[in-house]
Amino acid sequence: MSSTPPYTSSEQDSHQQSPGTGSPAARPRTGRRAAALTVALATVAALGATAQAAQAAPAQARAAQAGPAAACRGQGVDPDALIRYESDIMIHAPLRTVWKLQTDVERWPDWQAPVLTMERLSPGPLRPGSQFRWTTPAPATPTTPATTLHITSTVQQIQPNSCIRWSGPAVGAGLRIDEGVHVWTFTQVKGGVRVHTEETWTGDQVEADVPTATEALGWGLEQWLSDLKTTAEASSCR
Known about the structure:
single chain, eight-stranded antiparallel sheet, alpha+beta
């Protein structure tokens, strides 16, 4: 899941593929940093709020483009999901710094304002099967009330300093995402790290309004990447 404002850097590129992990398959199914899931599960909270016109148009344009699917140990996002967004960013910081920020989940609230609380449910380093529960606010929309989303993420695949994939539901009063699947990859390049992320959502409620849900998801991922870049680059300068 990803955290986002209502429903991010000049070096940032993003785009949405047709529903699917690694392929443009689709299935015929029917719905301030305040919020989100991407997760980025990542970042969902502003599921129903709309971004300002100047911000929404570029986000929609980026989401319409296509690109290669992200994967961790051969596994990607949901290939049948109707709601999908992907993006990447260049971070001028050491790989170890970026990786630690992203995988030290207990400290997410320190640098991500939309993450209200975080609880590790499994001790030790993250590994397949590790779980963590976190919350993020979601504002009211024409079809859903304002609520706080409770997200339970389970790590499915992880490769140190390379990639991580987690999934899980997000549930709040009057709002539910049945499953979000979130993949992150980290590639060391000249001058820093290229971070790529991709996330899908499934569930009848969010699939009832795919464009709005996709916009919310995109907002969350863009904000997450921006916060990660800002924090990592500031840390590397100390």
